[in-house]
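Field reference: sequence -> structure
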Amino acid sequence: MEVTNGDGVGHSDMSRKVIDEENSAVVIPETAHQISSDSWFQVGFVLTTGINSAYVLGYSGTIMVPLGWIPGVIGLIIATAISLYANSLVAKLHEFGGRRHIRYRDLAGFIYGRKAYSITWALQYVNLFMINTGYIILAGSALKAIYVLFSDDNVMKLPYFIAISGFVCALFGISIPHLSALRLWLGVSTVLSLIYIVVAFVLSVKDGIEAPARDYSIPGTTTSKIFTTIGASANLVFAFNTGMLPEIQATIKQPVVSNMMKALYFQFTAGVLPMYAVTFIGYWAYGTSTSTYLLSSVNGPVWVKALANISAFLQTVIALHIFASPMYEYLDTKFGIKGSPLAIRNLSFRIGVRGGYLTINTLVAALLPFLGDFMSLTGAISTFPLTFILANHMYLKARHNKLTSLQKLWHWLNVCFFGLMSIAAAVSALRLIAVDSKTYSVFADI
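Structure field:
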């Protein structure tokens, strides 16, 4: 029996059949990584680890400051709801057309054809590459924050810490063969997340109580407010989405759809509460001068801030592996890397290929430590299309005969709205890059 692998090309030797819980045949594309082995609870922690990284310590500045109290709070709640909705649409298409779509590009290719497969893979690759690079910058910034706490000689620059972080991330990536192998590390990540979030929360409350009246007015001119508002709106949805939901869902046990829905509900209930807490308290404590990012300027005992930054660094190393796993899976499958992770061929392949991939990430991170501006652009041209535009249109196309006219109109409205948001966010990001390029230089120590 010949089946397509998602890109429109038939392969009789690269797919296999399984029997799902309803005893119907479902074709699963061949993969070198482990799939259908994880509980929904473990997958829920994968999703939660992806959103509760040290990035949350900066959301009070990137979301609340440009939006203010009421729009900021309402925006976060709405972003949570629409992100859960969009992710649920993709999750429900995981088993569609007699196939299990374990990669986002497979699903797009199955529905639209070869060109969509290639475009989706390109968008996803750029998105994940930029996220990985951002995590290395974040880890390097955490290491520098620790250094600054104990030394003010300014000998060690940010690019040096980024290089160290990239090396540690590579060691971790080489040691963990696939996404499902993170099991114990997900628990470690959760503990680390709680440490820096609790420290940030407590120290921010202390500063907020002792501080004079704060300024909560939205800074900037009328024009700049418009652009920063658009950028903050893009950051809202970027905070909740991975852009690799089918790859994560591939690891979950049958029944894959209902189990994934449980994992998503876990992510968007218990998982977002720490994010809300540290974002709101940071803005309350510091207003428009919010400075909780990596606890660099928060008042408190040095050892406490050092512990929090060490936790941020280690948790970032774990979180990066999640977003790098689609590339690892592609390379391992393409070159037939199977069997024992400790086999000489497999280990040497991971050292060479994964190490090389993260070396490129690290070089870009050191070269452009103000990558946040470029990540805003990446979010506009990839996160929006992957998470919202494509999700709604794929669902519309796949379920076309089963939807009412009102439901079809709803999905088209979503496609059009997020399409316009994507364009607006891209324009805003380009403006931000143009402005900041006058301030920053390559290999900057920021």
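Note: Residues 5 and 73 are 43 Å apart (CA to CA).
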